[in-house]
From TrEMBL:
Catalytic activity: dodecanoyl-CoA + oxidized [electron-transfer flavoprotein] + H(+) = (2E)-dodecenoyl-CoA + reduced [electron-transfer flavoprotein]; decanoyl-CoA + oxidized [electron-transfer flavoprotein] + H(+) = (2E)-decenoyl-CoA + reduced [electron-transfer flavoprotein]; oxidized [electron-transfer flavoprotein] + hexadecanoyl-CoA + H(+) = (2E)-hexadecenoyl-CoA + reduced [electron-transfer flavoprotein]; hexanoyl-CoA + oxidized [electron-transfer flavoprotein] + H(+) = (2E)-hexenoyl-CoA + reduced [electron-transfer flavoprotein]
Known cofactor(s): FAD
Domain Acyl-CoA dehydrogenase/oxidase C-terminal: 280-426
Entry GO CC: cytoplasm
Gene: zgc:85777
Gene3D superfamilies named among the record's database cross-references: Acyl-CoA dehydrogenase/oxidase, N-terminal domain (1.10.540.10), Butyryl-CoA Dehydrogenase, subunit A, domain 2 (2.40.110.10), Butyryl-CoA Dehydrogenase, subunit A, domain 3 (1.20.140.10)
Biological classification of the source: Eukaryota, Metazoa, Chordata, Craniata, Vertebrata
Acyl-CoA oxidase/dehydrogenase middle domain span: 173-268
Protein name stated in the entry: Probable acyl-CoA dehydrogenase 6
GO molecular function: acyl-CoA dehydrogenase activity; flavin adenine dinucleotide binding
């Protein structure tokens, strides 16, 4: 295990030396120009010089991850989609061994100790997985259920829950949404009532990604009757405790390979020391945790959009209608150019938000803008690209139809578009005063 992680660090260093030599000879610039003049349709290979936030180390990290995706994940995606589940423990162990479940987490707890821009790089690379469900499940483990624990949790909690999650030995899930409360997180009903040294938990969670396979949940529950933004706590909840019941696995429009559960809690007893950070701060911690979740989601969808546009260019370039390739019709290649332009604009916004975030700035507004735009743009990309595939786009045989189904979630999950608009308006000071 240590060998794999050491090997990754070594690879990062080697790449860094090789690429900086290339770059110092002016190779990065010339290479790009040559490619453009030779072929106007293929993209130049990605280099650190092209990028605002990525160094050679980021690119080396992505390259190592790509090998795992190609060898261990993509060959099985169709089967997992058909089965409605992927083997989270097996895949997380592979990713954990290689260090990809905690790139920005402390070395003390098995992480690589890098900054959040490396998580963004990992999220972008995971967009090469040929479905949305598996990367989403990985993101829940690495960047949605664990940031608050890493930042505010006690050493004991980090030993028990963070370390094994980063190593891929435990599967995590995030329990925020409920049957009666999704967009309005402050109105959740699940209660954790203090009895001696324990909380007794009653209620339930809805839409829990990884929920049927998870070993523990980062649970948001009401721990007092105080005001709704100050009465909540995040609690590390082992899923094998008496009273935790997986009520059902939910059938969905998309994200088939990701299991989504409804979970009930009936007098579940958990030690009070399992609370993350300060009791009553759960709402605030969760709002902070959402920032990383949202940036991660945008990074992940960018690559998926790139890939769908590229596959559409390939397909429409060889499929003829009215004696010429579909792609040659101006409405088609202009539309694809417009969409690619918007993808690049979104990428710039993401990188700007990430660069500010790793310097310690509050990027709530930019992260919300990126999430809003990501959700809306992915719907446009999916709809336009599917159209150009004609009847083929309506079959289950092609990636574009899976992308159409899977990517629809981005405008809903992790805060719907309207919730993002509300946050942006708050920062613009345009919300009507109550
Ligand atoms: C596949 C999947 C996986 C998920 N995984 C997880 C998970 O792991 N953990 C977790 O906690 N949750 C998870 N969720 C839940 C997800 O975050 C919620 O679905 C989302 O927050 C929306 O909540 P809701 O479904 O209750 O919609 P509601 O809150 O009922 O909202 C319905 C709609 O109302 C509209 N709306 C909302 N606010 C406003 C407003 N201010 N003005 C106007 N219109 C508005 C929006 O269009 C919204 O879609 C998942 C959901 C899905 C579908």
């Amino acid at each position: 295990m240590a060998l794999h992680r050491g090997a990754l660090r070594l690879t990062l260093l080697r790449h860094s030396r090789h690429l900086s030599k290339f770059s110092s000879l002016g190779g990065v610039r010339l290479a790009s120009e040559n490619v453009v003049s030779q072929s106007a349709t293929s993209s130049p290979p990605e280099t650190a010089g092209d990028n605002l936030i990525y160094t050679q180390e980021h690119l080396a990290l992505k390259e190592s991850l790509r090998k795992i995706i190609d060898q261990e994940i993509n060959p099985h995606v169709d089967q997992w989609e058909a089965e409605g589940k992927f083997p989270a423990h097996k895949i997380f162990k592979i990713l954990g061994n290689a260090g990809f479940l905690g790139v920005n987490k402390p070395v003390k707890y098995g992480g690589l100790g890098l900054d959040f821009s490396y998580s963004v790089a990992v999220a972008e690379e995971l967009g090469n997985i040929r479905c949305g469900g598996v990367p989403m499940a990985i993101g829940v483990q690495s960047d949605m259920a664990t940031p608050a624990l890493a930042r505010f949790g006690s050493d004991e909690l980090k030993e028990e829950f963070l370390l094994p999650s980063i190593m891929g030995d435990k599967v995590a899930c995030l329990g925020v949404s409920e049957v009666g409360a999704g967009s309005d997180v402050s109105s959740i009903r699940t209660k954790a009532v203090r009895k001696g040294d324990e909380y007794v938990i009653n209620g339930g969670k809805m839409w829990t990604t990884n929920g049927t396979q998870a070993d523990w949940m980062c649970l948001l529950a009401n721990t007092s009757d105080g005001p709704p933004h100050r009465n909540k706590s995040l609690i590390c909840l082992p899923m094998n405790l008496p009273g935790v019941q997986i009520a059902r696995k939910i059938d969905k429009l998309g994200m088939w390979s990701s299991d989504t559960a409804e979970v009930f809690f009936d007098d579940v007893r958990v030690p009070c020391k399992n609370v993350i950070g300060q009791e009553g701060m759960g709402f605030t911690y969760q709002m902070l945790q959402f920032q990383e979740e949202r940036l991660w989601g945008v990074a992940n969808i960018l690559t998926a959009m790139d890939n769908i546009i590229q596959e559409t260019i390939q397909y429409t370039g060889q499929r003829k209608v009215f004696r010429q390739p579909v792609l040659y019709h101006q409405s088609v290649h202009f539309r694809l150019a417009e969409l690619q332009t918007e993808v690049e604009l979104l990428r710039s916004l993401l990188y700007r938000a990430t660069a500010l975030y790793i310097k310690g700035n509050d990027v709530t507004k930019l992260a919300s803008m990126a999430k809003l735009k990501g959700g809306r743009l992915t719907r446009e990309v999916a709809d336009s690209c599917l159209q150009y595939w004609g009847g083929m786009g309506f079959t289950s045989d092609v990636m574009v139809s899976r992308f159409y189904r899977d990517s629809r979630l981005l405008s809903i999950g992790g805060g719907a578009d309207e919730v993002m608009l509300g946050i942006i308006c708050k920062y613009m000071d345009t919300l009507p005063k109550k």
